[in-house]
Amino acid sequence: MDMRAIEDIAVGEDLTPPLPPLAAVLHDSAVTSHCSACFSALPPQPFPPSTLTYPRNSYHVPTNTPTPLYCSPNCASIDSSLHFSSAEHRLLFNFNHSPPSTWTDSSDLRLSLRLVYIFQNLPTKFSVFPVNKEKPMENTERIGGLMTNRENLLFGESVNNQIQENRGDSSENVLNVLERIREGAKIMAKARRMCGNEDENAEKQEDFVLEEMVLCLVMTNAVEVQDKSGISIGVAVYDAAFSWINHSCSPNACYRFLQGMDHNEQAPFRIRGGDLQCLHSERNGYGPRVIVRSIKAVNKGEEVTIAYTDLLQPRETRQAELWLKYRFSCSCKRCAAAPTSYVDYVLQGLSVDNPDLDKIEKLMENFDDAVNDYLSFGDPKSCCKKLENLLNHGDLSGHFQEPKEVKSPQKVKLHPFHHLSINAYTTLASAFRVQASDLLALNYEIEEHKLEAFNMCKISCAYSLLLAGVVNHLYLFESSLVTTVANFWINAGESLLNLARSHLWDSFLNPRTQSILVCLHHHQ
User: Fold this and answer.
1) Residue 192 has pLDDT above 80, yes or no
2) How many CB atoms lie within 10 A of CB 476?
3) Are the C-beta atoms of 468 and 312 separated by less than 8 Å?
4) Average predicted confidence (pLDDT) for the chain
5) Long-range CB contacts (within 8 A, 24+) of 355-358
6) Which of 7, 8, 417, 511 has the fewest Cβ atoms within 10 Å of its own Cβ atom?
7) Helix 419-442 with 447-475: angle, nearest 10 deg
8) Could you read off the pLDDT of 337-380 as tens digits, one per residue?
């Protein structure tokens, strides 16, 4: 399936009106900060789910169960029905009290439960499940026009050998995907049975084939919903008008999200797919809407494509990710380029030619170790030190003792445009900003702390500018990076404005602070 332009389209034009999701849920981390219906930020006093119209015995919420919150009574009344009817509340209870081994966030499972309920309650002309629940599904590859990819994810030949042999991916990752699907489907089936007062202990695989299908559909079609700052707050599945748009590593379109309820745009559809039949859920009009927009000129009849993966990754990494998640190999112009395109060449550039693979692997392990200090252990100081040593010296320590007689082998260092370098700039800009905020919160009155925090703000701003400049250079050779570079320049501009407006300038220009600066300089 694909979507094609029905007319000539210039750069920067909307190709669709705002499209509502079939279903959408917040990530577990965003449930207490955003409305579960419209995804807008919650007010100081949010509204709980509405349970007035539901029998207590069927929709009883066990104690200590996480519950969605809403920005208004209207959002609560619209979304609460789906929350309870889909057994989402039961899954949250089970997930919270007996955390599964392969799932750290329940959003994909909750989204799948909502879709099962929606698909089972569609009008007859849109029905996708057999009326008789005992009758097996005739088509397990598509539900409502959306690909489930179940056969490829669970039973395809690629599961056994092709990923490991031809895609450079480890068999461990394949087994993790299989285990996640199996365990996730079982968790979903248990929640649905609990909600229907049935035997919750389904053990046979055929007892939760339906849940497997829909979970595979979500893993194949769901997109991360981002807020205005680019932070992922949830996941959503849209109907075929969006989900049929294929991937390219050099796409001609992108998409953006609209949160809240004020969506009065009525742009026409300027793309079309064969035999397109859109589904409608009971909550159409709610949730984060998506708009597809051109980033290149598109001719009439030309296929419209978007990116399913990070375009600032080298070809091998993109191919491995796409194969692992979607079971296809990209053959777009960028991936098929021979020799390798300039952008893909520098995204994996190193300081030496033909380096030892063990050294590259060690470099990546060091990078992951540094970032983990920040994201998992909340230690931005350690993260910054490690990443800067990695960028400058090629390892985490930064301590080197050159032997006097024996010349050491050349160290493997990252090219400034290497994809890990780009990720490092992003992390450093954030980590230095967090360090400055933490330092000021610790003791705002100490001048030395103000001075150190001010320097950290400047460093954070510098990394934001470096990031934007590097990606801007890559954009000159790959125009599909336009939205990425635009976001980085916006972030860099905001960093500069915040630095210019900072009250810390007063302390920095204070004569007493200048004397402290001199003392610190001599001390160092």
Assistant:
1) yes
2) 11
3) no
4) 82
5) 355/412, 356/412
6) 511
7) 160
8) 999 999 999 998 876 666 777 777 888 888 888 888 888 888 89
Q: For residue 375, give Cα distances in angstroms to 102, 174, 369.
A: 19, 25, 10
Distance CA 409, CA 401 (A): 13
**DSSP single-letter state for residue 9:** B
Q: How confident is the model at residue 401 (pLDDT cuts 50, 70, 90)?
A: very low
* Number of C-beta neighbours around residue 426 at 10 A: 18
pTM of the model: 0.84
**Cβ atoms 436, 459 nearer than 8 A:** no
**CA distance to 153, 169, 216, 394, 435, per residue, from 325 (Å):** 8, 11, 10, 31, 35
Tracing tokens 């005739």 back to the chain, one arrives at 138
Residues, the chain, total? 524
φ, ψ of residue 208 to 5 degrees: the values are -135, 40
The CA distance from 13 to 297, in Å, is 9
Kindly give the pairing relationship between strand 4-5 and strand 246-247. Answer: unpaired
Reading the block at residue 110, the tokens are 């909750």
pLDDT above 70 coverage of the chain, percent: 77
Q: What b-and-e string marks burial along 188-218, b requiring 16 or more CB atoms within 10 Å of the CB?
A: bbbbbbbbeeeeeebeeeeebbbbbbbbbbb
Structural tokens at position 377: 């252990």
- Tell me, what amino acid is at 70? Y
C-alpha dihedral (106, 111, 116, 118), degrees to nearest 10: 150
What backbone torsions phi and psi does residue 294 show, to the nearest 5 degrees?
-75, 140
Cα separation, 397 vs 404, whole angstroms: 20
**DSSP secondary structure string, 58-104?**
TS---TT-----BSSHHHHHHHHHHHHHTTHHHHHHHHHHS--SS-S
**Burial code of 287-310, b = ≥16 C-beta within 10 A, e = fewer?**
bbbbbbbbbbebeeeebbbbbbbe
- The amino acid occupying position 29 is S
The two three-digit tokens of residue 444, written as one number: 């705002």
| DSSP E strand boundaries for 283-338 | 289-294, 305-306
- The CA distance from 418 to 349, in Å, is 5
Q: Alpha-carbon distance 31 to 25, whole Å?
A: 9
Return the closest-CA partner of residue 209 out of 286, 151, 275.
Answer: 151
Yes or no: say if 270 and 7 are a contact pair by the CB < 8 Å rule.
yes
Cα dihedral 264, 269, 274, 280 in deg (nearest 10): 10
CA distance 90 to 114: 12
CA dist list (Å): 124 to 21, 119, 120, 282, 330: 20, 11, 10, 14, 37
The angle formed by the CA atoms of residues 85, 86 and 92, to the nearest 5 degrees, is 110
